[in-house]
Amino acid sequence: MNIVLNNHSYNNERNRIWHYGGKQFKTGRDMTCYLGSPDVDYAKAADAFGVEGEVVKEPGKLKEAIARAQRVIADGRPYLLDIHTWRDGLGAASNWHPPLSVADLRQRKV
After folding, report:
1. Which end of the chain is more exposed for a tag (fewer CB within 10 A), N or C?
2. Mean pLDDT of 15-44
3. Nearest CA to 91 among 38, 35, 37, 33?
4. DSSP string over 57-99
């Protein structure tokens, strides 16, 4: 059973960076740690490799999801749980990220 505690962020890194009170902290802009745009669906990514899985967004559904995972791994197959959790610490509410478009950066349009 593989478990992703998905908080759409690198909490530890953001807390370390913001702890020193630099420009990112002062502006409330997290340059590197927000992972929610676009949201990554780790269960779909696992499926692309033939691994079953599911997204769990509600705490009340976790117990049943773990039971499903246990049945699958009992058969010798892997299973992934993408469990959505909260962000905490400094800047947890920030979802700002620098705009980036690979298409806009291309010299040759495809």
Report:
1. C
2. 88
3. 33
4. -SGGGHHHHHHHHHHHHHTT--EEEEEE----STTTT------
Q: Do 93 and 33 touch, CB atoms closer than 8 A?
A: no
90, 14 Cβ separation under 8 angstroms: yes
Q: Could you give the CA distance from residue 60 to residue 66 in angstroms, rounded to a whole number? A: 11
The pLDDT of residue 50 is 98
Question: Which pair of tokens denotes residue 33?
Answer: 């740690």
pLDDT, residue 34, reads 87
- The b/e string for 9-22 (b: 16+ C-beta within 10 A; e otherwise) is bbbeebbebbeeee
Reduce the DSSP state of residue 55 to 3 states and report it: strand
pTM of this structure: 0.79
